Amino acid sequence: MLAISAADRLSIEQVSAENAALVRLHEVSLRLARSEALPTLLDAVIEAAVTVSDAAMGTLQLYDPASRTLRIVSQRGFEPAFLEHFATVRDDDPAVCGRALREGERVIVEDVSQSPIFLNTPTMAVMAEAKVRAVQSTPLRARDGALLGMIATHWRKPHRPDAGALRILDLLALQAADLIEDRQREEILRQSEAKLAAETEALGRLNAASSRLWRLQSLEEGMNEMLAATVELLGADMGNVQILDAVKGVLTIAAHRGFDQDFLTFFQEVSAEDDSACGRALRSGQRVVIDDVEADPSYAPYRQMAREAGYRAVQSTPLTGSNGALLGLLSTHFRRPHSPSEQELRRLDLYARQAADFIERCRAEEALREVSRRKEVFLATLAHELRNPLAPIRNGLLILRRSNPEGAAAQPILEIMERQVAHLIRLVDDLLEISRIKLGKIQLKREPVDLGVAINHAVDMTKDLISAGNIRLVLDPSNEPFILFGDHTRLVQVIANLLHNATKYTDSGGEIRVTTRREGNFAVLCVADNGIGIPKDRLSSVFELFAQTDRGGTPGGLGIGLALVKNLVELHGGSVEARSDGEGRGSRFLVRLPLSVVEIREKAVLGAPQPAVKLSQRVLVIDDMIDAADSLALLLRSYGCEVRVANSGAEGLRLCREFRPALVFLDIGMPEMDGFETAKRMRALPEGREATIVALTGWGEERTRRRVMDAGFDQHMTKPADLGALETLLFASAFPA
């Protein structure tokens, strides 16, 4: 038998112990490899370190490069007091792990009670309380050498690990570092994917909020939607939208959520001099975030209101217009101290841009509506002012007609004047109806119309213009008469507009030809010229309202004439089209109109002289325009009426009491006492209670007609009064049913 020396026996025991440690390390490695989640892996690493080191306790710390600190993420065997003391360790900490962090190498203290590291330090008491007598700290390093953390093991008795134990610990540290680095990368990837998913979801909510906003039509609805979206995007508890009054330089609340009247009154107007969040944002033009109003010194004047309203944090984000000017603020409030994340604020900025664009769009639309409203008021006023002088002119013509003047030479002139006045009156009506053209609301006064007669009247209206342009007009109508059921004046207007259009684009010496023919149950009117023609790409747009077509440098006019032609023709159930072979080759406008089955009856409105009808009744005319009142009185007297004239409401009431009229023509737009007030007072008089009161005014729009009837008038007539309507009214008043 061979004898084994003591030295050999010790070596064998060391090898055996090291082999046993390697076996334990292998088992530990298998457990580590199976640890998928980072927290589970960290627990397994410190468990393995304590096991392979035969230690009683241990900690695993991870390193944060930003703060240069170690933080305990897993431990074995320690009480809360120890863990709190070593919760974070900086590289300037005198303890073991701080020294290892500072030197970048393992540090071993085999007897804490004798180590200068702990003598006369608060840490000595902590170590004694935890019954720690020996400790070592081994760095964990990533594959690139960067520090990942620290494995520290602790013993209850003085102890110094031998070289074999330290080799085993180094192997464990190396394997643990690789696994921790891999898990950290996986965790970073998982967090990145989760962050991306959350960001995608948030962007989806942002897109939905923007879509909801842009579907709204009014600014008020938009303000409420902006507030709801902002509160949702930031997860706020309450909020408000403020709009800047550029004139006064103050912010006013336009929408709010979660606030009572005291808050709204307190912040009713906010100026740039205020130190509230919105005041600072107004002053700087930048977002202001106050994460705790109780800790913000400048917020002291508003702190009590914040307490009463129930918020601790607030942010105010500017709404900036496309020109850089401040439009208002989006403010949100939180019940607890809070600071929105960078991602939340970035999304809020995107939404604020959308909200600012919406505000500008609404304001632009409102400005357009205001321009349109002013245009309508202007056109109505202009038409009213034009009707007033037309009234005595037309009344004078009617008087001349009823006086049955002798002399054949006067008749054609009188007829021309009558047609031109009638046409001028209708043009004034068209001035009011320009906006109605697009809606197709022009009213037709239908009757049997001879197309040939309408052509002749249109020629009478335009022949001076055609002659002035040195253009030859050729009329080549069909031998067959075409009877339409339509509005004579409107059809004349259609033909006259086409002749005017042809004249404008035909050079001196050119020719305009007007023809008619039948196509089935339609009459086809063609106005052709040999002028400058129409480019093929413009043929489809010449009938659009306000279309400006450049035809060889010739001015295109206002773009109303042909649009009116198309609208009027379609109202008659017809159609119109433009044709041209190209520039320099003339143009043709074809109008198709349905034929009427009704026999034509001549309508004597302004036709041949009629036998004068004599009526005997009392009529009162009240109008502040003297010429209009006197001319109407003359016309009424030609019917045998007994007429009195007043030029004010007060005078009209006086004459009503004295004269007891059966019929009253009352102007609406009089100064001092208008027609509405005069009619009201007249109805209260015994002498005016049974009278037929007719509103005679230059205001002819539907709104005025409704107001007239609501005010108690019996009828509404537009100046200048139509002779047929006037005669009907006179007969109805003289011979009631």
Topology:
Blueprint (H helix, E strand, L loop, with lengths): L5 H29 L3 H15 L4 E8 L4 E8 L3 H6 L2 E3 L5 H8 L3 E3 L12 H8 L4 E8 L5 E9 L7 H53 L3 H16 L3 E8 L4 E8 L3 H6 L10 H8 L3 E3 L12 H7 L3 E8 L5 E9 L7 H61 L7 H28 L9 E4 H18 L3 E5 L6 E4 L1 H17 L6 E9 L2 E8 L31 H11 L3 E5 L7 E8 L23 E5 L3 H12 L4 E5 L2 H11 L3 E4 L8 H10 L7 E6 L4 H9 L4 E4 L4 H12 L3
Parallel strand pairs: 13-15, 19-20, 19-21, 21-22, 22-23
Antiparallel strand pairs: 1-2, 1-6, 2-3, 4-5, 5-6, 7-8, 7-11, 9-10, 10-11, 12-14, 15-16, 16-18, 17-18
Helix pairs in contact: 1-2, 1-6, 2-6, 6-7, 6-11, 7-11, 11-12, 11-16, 13-14, 14-15, 17-18
Key terms:
single chain; 6-stranded antiparallel sheet; Beta-Lactamase; 737 residues; 20 helices; HisK_dim/P_dom; 23 strands; alpha+beta; 5-stranded antiparallel sheet; 19% strand; Heat Shock Protein 90; elongated
What's this entry about, in short?
The protein is α+β, with helices and mostly antiparallel strands.
What does this structure look like?
The chain is α+β, with helices and mostly antiparallel strands and 737 residues long. The chain folds into 4 domains: 16-188, GAF domain (Beta-Lactamase); 216-340, Beta-Lactamase, CATH 3.30.450.40; 444-594, Heat Shock Protein 90 (2-Layer Sandwich); 618-734, Response regulator (Rossmann fold), CATH 3.40.50. It contains 20 helices and 23 strands. Helix 16 links the parallel strand 19 and strand 20 (642-646). The longest helix is centred in the middle third of the chain and has 61 residues, at 342-402. The termini are far apart. It comes from Methylocystis bryophila. The modification 4-aspartylphosphate is found at residue 667.
